[in-house]
Amino acid sequence: GSTGLGPDDGKKPAEWQKISENIYLVDHGRTKNGRLDRKMQCDCELEYNDEGEPYEGCGEDCINRLLMIECHPKSCPCGEFCRNQRFQKKQYASVEIFNTRGPKGWGLRAKSAIAEGEFVREYVGEVCSFTEFQQRTEEYHEDER
Q1: Pairwise CA distance, residues 10 & 13, whole Å
Q2: What is the pTM of this model?
Q3: What does the pLDDT read at residue 125?
Q4: How far apart are CA 75 and CA 71, in angstroms?
């Protein structure tokens, strides 16, 4: 079976490291405890099944979802039934790393069909200043020559 690391030899790309959170190289507005302060409580209500049991909350009309903000687990009125915490719960599509065998190097592809509008994955990486971005772009361009 596929290792998810490449179609031929299974080797990882040079200098590759899996990370689960962004690495900030610039100040990014964190609070004193090091966390981003982006909480906003929605006014969603739980939906109930035919047996009267709660089964989901925070659907497509959730104000936080519409504003592209995830609900906070401690303040969402739908609690564990909230469907607007995909980043926090790491609810990602099944993907694999592969070698494109071209100038773009390594990429990510889906292991199964993904419907239009479906959440795929959170991008994580280094967050740098615009100056750093420009320097890296020049370096990458020089490497291609």
Answers
A1: 10
A2: 0.58
A3: 86
A4: 7
